[in-house]
């Protein structure tokens, strides 16, 4: 009986995330953990599947923009099977699945497409190969990026390489958070000024000097609420906000 485990391209659990499970050569035996033997389909333990196509159904094929890592594994101890999922207290990661095993799994995975099964499997296989970046040239990428920065007069900018798409997304989210803070600072300055102006005009209206001023002040607060909602909708999901 063969069992398989899928990881992201940077060797992390595809659903739970966390640190890479290993580095270096295989085989590797994972640490022993408590295994849930209840009837729950999802539970503690090292999770795996009986076939690659089931792994595709659960974890996808290219969650990080690169193909998932498909590993042949050997469970240690009791195997708890619930629904499509299996788990055990430890696993030995034996080897990577080869291209022929993955291609055959894609064929089976595409069975729901009926008469288009083989066509769909072939298209997915071509995507798999393309996303492996077989012609990736790091030096060429760096040269082209520097040329693009120079063309835009951004010579003082530097190039930073991230070890995974996840790390690049985290950096982008951090920049977005700072941009949001800058937007709030600008809004606070503008709002303070206009709030003061509105209060002054409203005070003048209370003195009977301007009916138009009172109307302008009354219109300020709904506009403020609408602007706040607009900014909140633009904030990235990782930024916590309190209203």
How would you characterize this protein structure?
- The chain contains six helices and seven strands.
- Helix 1 packs across helix 2 (99-109).
- The chain is of the alpha+beta class.
- It folds into two domains: 3-131, no CATH class; 165-234.
- It is extended.
List keywords for this structure.
single chain, 243 residues, alpha+beta, four-stranded antiparallel β-sheet, three-stranded antiparallel β-sheet, extended, disordered C terminus
Q: Give the tally of structural domains.
A: 2
Compute the average pLDDT: 82
Task: Based on Cα principal axes, name the global outline.
Answer: extended
- The H/E string reads EEEHEEEEHHHHH
Q: What summary fits the major beta sheet?
A: 4 strands, antiparallel
* Separation, N- and C-terminal Cα atoms: 56 Å
Short description:
With 243 residues, the protein is an alpha+beta fold. It has six helices and seven strands. Helix 1 crosses helix 2 and helix 5 packs antiparallel against helix 6 (211-234).
